[in-house]
Amino acid sequence: MKRTISFMTGKGSLNHNSRKFHAKNTDPNRTHWNVEYCNEDIKDVYHELFDDALKRYNDKQTRKDRKIDDYYEKIRSGKQEKLFHEVILQIGDKDNMGSETMEGQLAAKILDEYMKGFQERNPTLRVFAAHLHLDEATPHLHIDFIPYVTGSKRGLDTRVSLKQALSSLGFKGGSRSETELNQWVQSEKEKLAMVMRENEIEWDQKGTHEPHLSVLDYKKKVREQEVEELTEHKNLLEHDLHDISECVDEIQKEKEQAEKERDAVIKRVEKNNKREQEKKYIQDTIAQNRRGERKGTVIMPERKIYAFQDAKKIRVGAYCRVSTAEEAQVGSFEMQVQHFKSVIENNPNYELVKIYSDEGVSGTSVERRKGFQEMMTDAEKGKLDLILTKSISRFGRNIVDILTALRKLSNLSPPVAVNFESEGINTSDGKNKLVISILSALAELESQQKSIAIKEGIRYRMQEGLYKFSVHNTIGYYRDYSGRIKIEPAEAKIAQYIYECFLEGGSPQEIADFLTEQGIRSPKNMEYWKSATVRSILSNEKYCGNVLYQKTYSKDYLTHKTVKNNEVLPQYFWENNHPAIINKKTWDKAQELLSSGKYGKNKKQIVKLNKKFTVSKVKNGVLRGFILIDTSWTKEERDIVIKILENKELD
């Protein structure tokens, strides 16, 4: 049995070869007969083959434009080398080796044996995809490979090259008909023919025993062979031309770099020459001045920059501030006020405009400092020439606010100066700007450290259950003069009334409306109640004698803004911390009802709270502990109130 061998170069349709789609000449019912030897991602194979060489190449480059980011993309977008090559092998044709015939099965067996030795024979042709197709008319084998060479002296030391890959396998080009590719194709055909002979099939080499051709046909055949040889030779020359072009490009780039370096040297020399000329000009000019050859006159200014430096009567304002209203700070505040009054009154050049003050206000922000804001407004209106203050820390404890205010004052026309007495610094001296900036930063740092120390002290007292939480807006409680929490009986009746109404079916909104209608004031002494206020009282654990510390915390020491503590900082829960207004069982029922959201159903008629019980106690200030009473009460009503306050049973 004799059969031909077809050894063709394919276009390399990888998706078609792996049957990601079917052409018209395929039979999907026989696709499962196909054999897939390998099917790797070509990009992964490129990384495997060339990444190390690419790194070595790039490491040698001194210029960024010579480096190669992606070797795969470089080959894909280039025209000299193909990304990969494909060969297609077939034995016989569809008439004598059809896929569904016994002969076709034999052809598939031979191609399978041939394929198993292909990579070992051709180590420089890296096979990444190979498929034996049996779902077309004739069995045939697709082999896709990347030809590469190692030890290259140009470009990457490992790079894509069909010519060099075949040359490293021992195929050396000779004449136009004896190229490396032609030699390799012939060698592979002979390898396939050996496998065919082992399976009792002879290679039918067309053209070897052709009948006698006419002179015209013979010449035509010779010309076709010559054209084929010339085409292959042209391809080889183009490949060599590509290598030469790469060298030319590299030389051109080196030339351009050398020209840039030359131009840079010239510029440096010119710059140095210009600098020397400028130095010589300055030296010559000064020498002429010293010899009296040039004459100049200094014209002194008639006016000073700052009004206080030139005015006969200086309009002065003083700024005083303390951060808290505690007794220890009250003395400090009053001393500041009296001191500056004395300084201004005893200076005949000073005219007092006003003592601006902020008592019990933090210096970390200007928002709440009304006195400071008034002072800045008066300065902008031109009412001030000079501002006196004790120190930078009294002026403010926020470096941004301090420097912004000082810059605004210095930009006025005329500018207003600030004198910091403790530091001995006046802003009219421009040399003090850096010192003021540093001292402002230190003032802010001191405020931050104080804030941290205070917070740590508060958290320690919380941890030990000693922290005195505010009851100013907590209806039913007040603190006595020793700081202990006491129940205010009249207000406690309101809290109990709210819990009773809620458990009997009243909604927070309905309870709020009833309290408003009855003229009972809210915890903040408002005439109307909100449902949120009622909900807050119903959910507040303090009414059953417990306390949960650190529900909120101050996030920023500058703004003092309070935010909810959502598992950011530890919380401290203390039971039986103080007397309870609501027993624990009632409080727990209220929490269950709040959580369920099923309140306001099946409610009883809400009974109004007797207004004679709605009295309140002053919780702060000099009148702390006094009771607010209604002058319209009768003697009997006043007696009832007194009994409630004394925790006596009513008759």
The proportion of residues forming helix, as a percent range, comes to: 40-55%
Instruction: Indicate the CATH architecture of the largest domain.
Output: 2-Layer Sandwich
Total number of β-strand segments?
21
β-strand amount: 5-15%
Provide the structure class: alpha+beta
Broad CATH class of the largest domain: Alpha Beta
Instruction: Kindly identify the CATH topology of the largest domain.
Output: BirA Bifunctional Protein, domain 2
Q: What can you tell me about this protein's structure?
A:
- The chain is of the alpha+beta class and 651 residues long.
- It has 3 domains: 2-210 and 222-245, BirA Bifunctional Protein, domain 2, CATH 3.30.930; 307-449, Rossmann fold (3-Layer(aba) Sandwich); 477-545 and 580-610, Hect, E3 ligase catalytic domain fold, CATH 3.90.1750.
- The protein has helices at residues 14-17, 42-60, 71-77, 102-116, 118-121, 162-168, 180-198, 215-290, 327-345, 370-380, 392-395, 399-410, 433-463, 489-503, 508-517, 531-539, 584-596, 635-645, and strands spanning 2-3, 5-10, 35-39, 85-91, 125-133, 140-150, 158-160, 202-203, 314-322, 350-359, 386-389, 417-420, 425-426, 477-479, 485-487, 547-549, 552-554, 562-564, 572-574, 616-617, 627-628.
- Strand 9 (314-322), helix 9 (327-345) and strand 10 form a beta-alpha-beta unit.
- Helix 4 crosses helix 7 and helix 15 packs across helix 16 (531-539).
- The longest helix has 76 residues, at 215-290.
- The N and C termini lie far apart (131 Å).
